[in-house]
Structure formats: structure tokens, C-alpha cells
Protein 1
Amino acid sequence: MPLLEIQNLTVEFPTISGLFRAVDGVSLTCDTGEILSIVGESGSGKSVSMLALMGLLPSNARITADRMAFDGKDLLSLSARQRRTVIGKDMAMIFQEPMSSLNPCFTVGYQLGETLRLHMGLNRAERRTRSIELLKFVGIPAPEDRLGNYPHQMSGGMSQRVMIAMALACNPKLLIADEPTTALDVTIQAQILELLVRLQRENGMALVLITHDMGVVAETAERVQVQYAGQKVEEQPVSGLFRDPHHPYTAALLASLPERAVIGERLPSIPGVVPGQHDRPEGCLFSPRCTFATDLCRREVHEQGPDFGRALCNYPLRIGIPMGHPTLSVALAGEDA
Amino acid sequence: MAVSETKTAAPPSGLAEFWFYFSRNRGAVLGLVIFLVILCLAIAAPVVAPHSPTEQNRAVLLLPPAFAAGGQLTYLLGTDPVGRDILSRLIYGARFSLFIGLVVVSLSVVSGVLVGLIAGYFRGRIDTAIMRVMDIVLAFPSLLLALVLVAVLGPGLLNAMIAISLVNLPHFVRLTRASVMTERTKDYVIGSQVAGAGTMRLMFLTILPNCLAPLIVQATLAFSAAILDAAALGFLGMGAQPPTPEWGTMLAEAREFIQRAWWVVTFPGLAILITVLAINLMGDGLRDALDPKLKRS
Amino acid sequence: MLRFIFGRLLVLIPTFIGVSIIAFAFIRMLPGDPVMLMSGERVMAPERHAQIMAELGLDRPMYIQYFDYLVGLLQGDFGKSIISKRSVLTDFLTLFPATVELSFCAIVLAVALGIPAGVLAAVKRGTWLDQTIMGTALIGYSMPIFWWGLLLIIFFSGYLGWTPVSGRISLMYFFKPVTGFMLIDSLLSGQPGAFKSAVTYLILPTIVLATIPLAVIARQTRSAMLEVLGEDYVRTARSKGLSPFRVVGLHALRNAMIPVITTIGLQVGVLLAGAILTESIFSWPGIGKWMVDSVFKRDYAVVQGGLLLIAAVIMIVNLVVDVLYGLVNPRIRR
């Protein structure tokens, strides 16, 4: 049984003009010692699904799932109190904005020690020792001096290191990193990613890395799950995904990477934007932006089998060719041959 | 795979959106309704009021309200110590209160916005000087300053209104200045400046409309505060003078009868409370509807 | 920190000068000249009038008169009452403790009830509890407190006969004021029942004076809490598995207190304005009633001095609030 297993998770928020579905039937699994990456544009529901898992969504969110299990515990049947013994201890999370994720009114030492006292029951001296050890572990120089610092006295990169130290305080089995490098400088980004991968290896924990940056995925992850407008559209090992993406959206994302651009040509982009609450199409949600979309796509969409990375597409791509497409597959295949 | 059943609706816009948020706040709608009723009563006072507000009926001094023991149906809310109908006086009093609120708000909004706009737009020494003066005004408790101003100018409704407007002024100056300063550096302002818009155009047509939301909310609050302050001055004997049927003045006149005739004290105060509450309810609704930060998802 | 306080004090100087100009100008804006105002209704021979003008230095240019006034202020000379001939400063210092006692009790009541009410409303946002608390707060905020005081008197003093109507303590008790605070003095006097009597006299004025600050603090706490509860660091606190009580009561409240403290500081002006009405209703012998009485008795020297002293008190309290603000908000602290 995998460490983390989520089946058919749906999250909806009531808004003034009806329910907004932020996550739509997403399933995922992640095992000990594995790095799973969830990729998608902003608004694709990647953070929301993980916040739902952590129980951090506001109380007006409607969360339904067929199954949500972690470390042998069924999270759906746990009481809030029981869930809090898991969260922050065995399952920890770090966020996109390190600067605003630390409480400005408390020192670093206090915020670190809080977790240690709650979940490990350490006394004052033990907390101090462990805090210094953790800060050293995440590469913060002169950790003794940092304990008395307030968050506003630290840089973004430093804050994110403190956040990571806090998350790792109780040796969690699963770490969820929600766009951990987005708000940081490019040079710091690489350092933080490196740190996360090193810690994941040394601690043998599972890491779920949420990002919109394909470059980050290529450098770190083992398995990738692509989300679009709240739905999972494809799932593959990293090498497979970069070599042969099956969903047109994944293909388009990869094509828009600067590294893959042909010199002298314009960088390809995906026309249009992710559908919002008011312009959600029928059928396949990507159909308005998809070059291969047909009338069938605008009516309904089917999930493919594991061969096609469970792509949520009527005409999944194989080496760039939409399979079973009424017009294009024949033409392109002929061209190829 | 499941096809989404989420309804597609056009995003709400403009005035419709404002009304949507405003009407969602039931309190605000209630406040608006009460306010409109009071407004209609005030306008139609000569038609609606059963008696003249100054007519003294010596036969019925301190008559209890109609629903209490010994009351008469012609004097629905009873009579005061000189035999005037309390209900009629309250209805006429609404005219004074609403008029005071209107005048005070107009005076302090117009002058406050102008001064605030100048301070926030030009900054520098003008700004420092203006803000120092405002600090000085704010160093006094508002009611005390109003009281002393009225003492200088002489008791009366007009002087009370001038004094209250002056005391209210710093709030509008500060608010306008703060919004102007944040808007001043925004790209759209720089844009129209680069495009050659003049100072006047920039101040009044480009920047000011974008500062209106908090000003409208503050104006609503100032409206109710003005009614309260004017009533307080009237209560202290420094506002409208008897026999004007102003609610605060009525309370002052009724004070010595509190142990004997509860109604002469209760109803004028209730009228103040209901009016002020209605306006404040509307103010809360306006704030929710105009302030995007507080809007619910 | 000392430098911070010193900097704030420097900013106060121009404001204080401005306030003194207003107080100085006040008596000269009144119709008639100061000597006529002081002599009241009596008719005075023109020679006598000129003589007094010269004696008081009122025939000299305005700016010299103002300068003399300012020098007097710095020496603690805030003028003399036209009627009682007593020093304004002495009267102020005698009456001020009564106002401080009343205002202090009111602000303690307002904070003790307002903050928990606001937190509760924010946490239970949208429920009937939130609506009840906020509805009550809005009624309190809209309350004409002079009427509210009369209603309480009608009910508690008139109908139930529980509380006295006016004054600070029953006439049965008499002792020399030591601190000027009746609650403390009554305890120090050792007379049985004196403290209880002082409390019963204090209850209604405290409730009346606390009403508006209570409503403002509850509303401000709620909106500050709502804002803070949506912050990233609150999510971080929850992601640690902390109990909701600790997340709300410690992580969120500590941050929400920053704007609330400013609001509490701003209530001092509101309290002194409210004290004018409250003290008038309950015949509470404080500076609010003193000022109103002086306005009515046309004792303009007292009004002038009192205005200045009250403004000075407000400025000093605002300074203290600024310093406190620095203490709770580490971002300002050096």
C-alpha cells in the first residue's frame, strides 16, 4: 500500500455565482522515498488539492473523495483532533511565500520550538539543541544567532530554509512543497531545490513538489502529474513525459520551454487562458485552446489507459501524433511515413 | 471522465455587482428602508404629523402614550410638559436631524476632499503644514471643540453645524490624502501625466474618482456622527434652542421629568438611535460592497 | 527605543504650539474684549477699563501677548478662574483623577468585553453568533450615550432602585482624598462599606462611557482578526497541527492586536468627549462636567486653560500608545 493515496478528490467553494470547482476528480499516489511532482498553471488546483489533504482549506470548502489515506490511516474518518496529531508531524508542508509564511510577531526559535514541544514533547533545552541542529541541517550559518531573529530580519531564501527546518522538525514521512522556489531569486531557487532533494534522500521521506516550472520538474522529480483547470490530465515518469507527452496540454507546455526553442524562431505559446468559473466549457476543458479539438471533444472526454499516461484526452498523442483523430492522425501519420 | 456540471454564468459587472453585494447584506437593506421611511416622514412632515409641533394643549400636560394606561389615541406617543404632541415633534425633528447631517457632510466632504487632494498631490511643505493643522484639530476631543466653538459663535443650530463640520474635517483630509498618495504613484496616473494631462485634470478626473470608495463610506459614518453630535450639543443646551423640535434639545427639556414621565425621555432618544443605526447599517453595507478586500470569495 | 520616544516628543512641539495658539485665540475671538468678559454684567467706567487693560498687558501687540502667554504656560500658569479666582491648573489637578478613574474603568470594561467579542465573531463568521455580536456592537456604536445614561438611570436607579443617580460616593462617607481615585481612597479610609458604595456610584457611568469604545473595539477586533486569519502565517501555524485555540488565540490574535491597540489609543479622545456627556448626566465631578459648567458660566479663562490641558493629556496618551505600538510590533522596534 502506498504511503499516500488519494482517489477522486473534488474540492468546491461556494461563491456568489454558484459553486466553483477548484479540484475535479483528482487521484494520486506517492510512496516513501519518492518525489512526485504536480505541474500546472496557476489556477489548476494543484495547491488546493494538497491543502485539502492537510485540512487547511477554509471551512466553507466542500471536500469529497472516494479515498484519502496516509500511512495506513483513513484521513476522511479521522476527527479534527486526531488529524492534528498527523499534520505537522508525519505530514508537513512548506509554502510559496516564505516571507509571509512566518509569523512576524514571533522569533524563529519560538516558531521552531512550538512544533517540537507539541509533537515531540521536548523541554526548553532540548528544543534549543534540536532547533540549532535543524537550522544547521538546512544550511543556515550561525544558527545560534538566528534563533532570536524575527522573520522581517531575514531574506526570502533564509525564511524558506527556516520553513523547511520547521517542516522537518519531527522527521515527517511526507513533505509537501507548494511552489517552494517561485518567490525566490533564481540563484537561491537552485539552492533550495538541491536542499529539498538532499533532505528527501537523507531522510527517506516522500516529497510532493508542486510547481508550474517544467525546469524544476526535470531537475528533481521522478514521477509527474499534470493538472489543468482542476483536473489531472496526465501522469508519467519524468523521462517518459519529456520524451513523449501524451496530452496536448503537456506537449504544449513542454514546447513553450525556452530550452526547447528553435533558435531564431518565436517561442511557442498556448493561446487563451485557463477557463475560470464563468467560462468553463462543456466536454474537455482544454478544448478551446487545443489545436486537435473536435466536436466530440467539445461534448465529452475520456480518460486513457496507463499506456497513454492516463491522459484525459480523446486523441492522446504518441510521438506528437493524435491517435484516432478523424482527420489529423491519418494525415500526420502519412507525412511521417 | 466526469463532465463538469458547473453552471456557466456571465460575470456580474458595475452597478449590478454593487447592488448584488449591497443587497446581500440584509442589515444594509433594512437600514436603507428605515432611512427612506424617515426621509419620507421628514419631507411630508406637515401632512403626516397629527398636530403642530409647537401647539400647546394645556388640557393634556404629560399625557402618557396611547398604549399606556391613561393615554389618548390622538396623542399616540403622549405629550410633553407643556402639552405638545411628542409624535408630531419627533416627525418634525427628523427634518432637523437629516438637514444637519446633510449640511455637515456636504461642508466637510467638499472642503476636506479639496484640502486632502492638495496635500496628497503636491506633498512637500504644503502637505506638512496642512497635516500639522489637522493634528492640532485632532488633539482636542471632538465634542469639546464643537462645544467651545459654539460658545464662541453663540448657541444655535447653524453654529452647531459649522462647528461639527470643522471637527469632522480632519478625517476627510487624512483619508483623501492617504488614498491620493497611493494612487498618485500608480501607472495609470503616470501614464496620463506622460500623455500631457494637466494638474487639474490629473487631480480631479484621473485620481479623485479612484479614491471615492473609502470617502463614500466615511461620508456615511460622518452623516450619522453629525446627527449624534448635533443632538449631544442640543442636549447640553448649545445646539438648537427651544422650542425647536430637535431631538437632542427635546431630551434636554425632558430631563427633569425622567422619574415621572418615562416617555418624554424615551422617544426622542429612540428616534436618534434608530436614525443613526439605519445610516450606520447602510454604511456597513456600502463598505462591504465598495471594498473589494472585504468581499467574500 | 529612547530615540524613538524622543523623536515623537519633538513632533509634538509644533502641535502643542498650535494648540496653544488656538487656546490663546479663543478668548480673543469672543465678542467683546477679555476685560469686559471678565467683569461680566457690571458696567465699568472707560478709564477703569483702560487701566485694567494696561495692568493685564492687553493693550500691547498680539504677538507679545501670545509670547507672554506661552512663557506663562511653560511656568505652569494656565490662568485663573474669573469666578472662583482659583488657579485653573489646581482645579484641573483636583478634578482630573475623577475623570481618569471613570475613563480607566470604562476602557478596561471595553477592552475586556470588546476583544473577546470581536475574536468570537471573527472565528464564528457568518453564524447567528457573529450577527448577534455585530448587531449589538452596531447598536452600541450608534447609541446617543446621553440618552442611554438617562435610560439606565430610569431603569436601575428609578425602577429597581439599585444604583444611586449622581456623585462619586454616598454622603455617609467622608474622608480626605489621598490619591483622588475614589476606589483606592475608599479602601484606604478603612470605613466599612465605603468601597462598595464607591463601586455602586461608578457602575452606571462606566457602562455609559464604555459603550461606544466597546462597540468600536469589538468591530475593529473582528475585522483585524478576519484579515489576519487569511494570512499565510496562520496557515503555517495550522499546518503545524496546533490546536485552533492556539492558532487563533496566539498566532492570529498577536498580529490582530497591532491595529486594535491603535484603535484603543484613539478611544482616549472619544472617552474624553464621552466624559463631557457622561459626567454631566451623572453629576460626576470630573473635568468634563467642569468644562461644560465653565462654558455655561462663561468662565472663559477656565475654558481656555482646560482646553489646553485636555489637549496636552490627549497628546501624551497618543505618544504612550505609539510607544506601546512599537513594543507589540517587532517590525517597528529596533
Protein 2
Amino acid sequence: MLTNRRKDAFVAAVLVAPFLAIYLLVFVWPTIQMFGISFTDAPLIGSGDWVGTENYERLPKDPRFRTAAWNTAYFVLLTVLPGTVVALLIGLGISRLKGRLQSAILALFFLPYILPVSVVYLIWDWVLNFQFGILMHILDLFGMDRIPIMKTRTWFMPAVAVVTIWWTAGFSILLFLAGLRAIPVEIYEAASLDNAGRWTTFRRITWPLLWPVTSLVFTIQLIAQLKIFDQVYLFSVGGRPNDNMVLVYYVFQRAFQQDQGGRAAAVAVTLFVLVVVVSVLQFQLLRLAGGRK
Amino acid sequence: MTRPGIQTVNLWGGLITFLTVLAALLWAFPLYWGVISSLKPEDEVVRPFIELWPENLTFDHYLTALTTSQIGSWYLNSVAVAVGVTVITIVTSMLCGYALSQLQFPGRKALWWLILASFMVPTQALIINHFVLVSQLGLINTWAGIMLPQLIHPVIIIVYKQFFDQVPKDFREAAVMDNAGEFGILFKIYLPMNWGVTTALSIVTFIWTWNAFLWPFLSVTKTEMMTMPVGITQVNDAFGVYYARQLAAAVLAGLPVAVAYLMFQRKVTEAITLSAGIKG
């Protein structure tokens, strides 16, 4: 028995080792390093001197960091709740369809999600092109003034938010569809026997039973959008990157364009802590919601 | 139920169906517009009115993009990186998931919590130290360097563990009776019984890696080492203001993943719902 257990432990060690080695190398070690250099004035590559919490103390006074924090919050506001509502509505619409029509319609909504962000960027950059974009032709048709959308402060974040919702809604729709399928048909049959109306059925059956999925979709998006970078970076090229600054962009700019690894790491740590706190809260909330059921 | 009741229900239902289909067509329109623009001659793309179908349909931009730019090497880089990451991630995750599911060993609980906790880690925050690590290893501008930080997808281990947990214990006991080793049990029983989930996870890992932007963008400075999604945005001078040609390059970058999705629609949606923690 004892030898058996020892053999088990040996085999387990062999099976787990490859994953664990990579995990320690690319997850644990860089995380420790990140905390370490955030207290130094290190450049991107190479070591620096200990500066205590100076890098953190500078953040609230740094206008560019404040822009980044504000824009990230603004972007979260523009995408998370609207994205969830849009996906829910589309999910409800698709769930009524059947068979081939359903999978065809789902595919149309889902295709953008499967594409690389740069393809999404090139397509929308073309649609929104100030000279030749189809959206500008449409504005012309309605006699409205053309707008250089990605070059203005007012329109940049809302436009990137729309593109992001367009790109990622397919994922949320998929989760809503799985959630809707899990609701037993008998409940709806019982409701229709009771002559419950459409709204009542949604309000009393669909919405409460779908709530775990809704909160999941909401929090997955919240965490994803805090980490926004790709779209903002791509659409800012040739525009106003400093006005469109978001947290990850700030890390990128400080570390890779200004060679200030230490100061960049302080922001990376801030983002890291923020995401961990939100994730823990999410986990607790989901557990609470699960307990209430 | 009265007759008018049924009629209003159908009217409503019809309207909602109509709106859903209409919304889907509008939703996919930018994709259509991108593809169709890439099939027009350059002088047609910039005409000041909307033409939903090219007057002179042409594949020239694809030919030019493929022959005069570095798209060939970008394709090769993307394929190599995506295949490499997929194979390594799937194999290491499967082995680890099997150990977690079927074996008793010290530290098992701790490892499980470590994997669950890693969900919270924002890899975007680690870019600085990934870059330091990869340059210390001398892997900047190499396939291995692009791959390394992308090799961790804890969710795949979790999905594997769930599926291995569901395999009836009788299979294992019978195999142990026959003196089969753990590797034999894994590769002859557990893996063949879970081919479906293995292919599904492989397809989405491939898609995730193909689409990755931030890390491949940071870890490559030479144009010939870029992956497809990075290359098409970084090398603008290769295309100048040739809108149609740039869109053709975008279509080429999106094509492999779009085709993978359309061919394996079921598998992809299954794997994605699984990875979000919902059983399909």
C-alpha cells in the first residue's frame, strides 16, 4: 500500500512537472519580479536603485496616469453594461429560432469574435475612414457633417466601445444561449397554461433563472475591459495616444517607449491588484448569489 | 385559449424573428463590406458612393499581398507559433489534469488552488517582466519567445479534470488489475474516451494563439518575424494608401480562424462555453 502511494506520488510529479515548470517560469517568477522592480528606478532591461514607494507616490500627481485611470473607467462604463444588455437581447432573439436558421444567425453574430483584433481594426478603420468610409457616405446621405471619429476626444472612446461590443458580443451571446437552453421547457409550458404574458414570463421565469449567467457575463466583461489595450493602441496610431491613454497603454508607453521599467511596474502592480480585487469580489458575489438560491 | 390570442402571439413572434435576422445581417455587414472592398480595384474603392457589389471583381490585391509583401513569412510564423502553443498547452494541461483527477499526491490541493487563483492574474500586467525574461533567455524575435508566455491556459486543466472525473471508476480498476501503468491508462483509456473535448480545446487554443496581439507585438522587432495579426498593422508603408490591398491582407489574416470556426462551429462553441465554466 505504502509503495503504491509512493509510486503514485512519483508518477504525479512526472505528470505535473511540465505544467508546473512553465507556470513558475512565466507566471510566478514575473509576478514576483514585477513587485520587486516597482520599488526601483530600473529601466526596461537592467537593474536600478531602490526608491521605496516613490513610483507609487508619483501616480496620483501624474496627469497621464489620471487620464489612463479615467479612460479605463469610462471604457468599462461604456462597454460592460451595454455589452451585457445587447448580448442578452440578441441571445433571447436567437433562442427562439430553430435548427439551421439558428446556427446560421448565431454564426453571423459570432464571427467577429473569432477574428484577430487587428482585422477588426482594419475593417472598422475602413468603415469609419474620413474620406472614403461607408459611414461617412451615410452621414452625407442624411446631410450631416462628416466626423473624423478616431481623431476626436469626444468620439474616440464611445467608438472604440461600439467596436469592442461588436467584436466580443458573440462570446456573451453564446453564454446566454447556453443559459437559456438550461431552463426546463416545462416551466414555460406551466406558465403558458397560467396564461402568463410575455413580459411576466420573462420577468418571473427567464430573468431570475438566467441571473447566474447574467452575472457571469457581466463580471467576465468587467475584468476583460479593465485590461483593454489592443483596440485603443491600434485606433490611436496617427491620432492622439496621450488623450486616449488607458492603464495597459500607460504600462506599455512607460516601459517600452520611455524605458522606465520601474515606473511602469508600479502601474502594472496597480492594475494587477485592481483585477485581483475585482475577481475576488466577483467570486464572493457569485457565491452569495448561489447561496441565496 | 382564444383564437385572437394565438394570432397576436404569432405576430409578435414573427416580428422578433424578423428583427433578429435583420440585426444579424446588419451585424455582419462590416465583415461583408471589408471582404467586398478587398475585391474591388483601388479606383473603385474610393468612389464617392456606396456600391454593394464590385463593378470589376478582382483578386489582384490578394495576389499582390501574397507575392510582394512578407505575408508568406508572417503566415509561417503564425502557423508555427499557434501549432506549437496548442500542442504544448494541450499536452501539459492534459497530463496535469489527469494527475489532479486520478492520483493522490502531496500538494494536490495546493496545486488546484494555484490553478484556480491564476485565473485572476492579468497577463497584460506581466508584459514588462515577460519581456525581461524572454530577452534574458535570448529569445526576442524567435518563435520560442513568442510562444513562451502564451503556454499557460489554466482553464484547459480544469476542463480536463472535469472530464476525467466523469470517466467511470470501473475502467480504471480493470486496467489496474491488468497491471497497466498510469501512462497506459491515460493514453489507452482516458484520452480516447475524451477525444471530443481534446479536439475542441485544441481548436480554441489555436484560435486564441493565432489572434494574440499584445505579446507577439512586443516580443518581435524584426518585420520578418512578425505574426500575421501584428504584421498587417505594422507594415503600412508596404501598402501605402492602398485600401483594398490592406483589406485583402486583413482577410488573409482572418481567414484561417474564420474557416476553422465555420468548419467546427459546434466544437468551437462547446469549448468556449466550457472555458467560461458553463457545461454545454
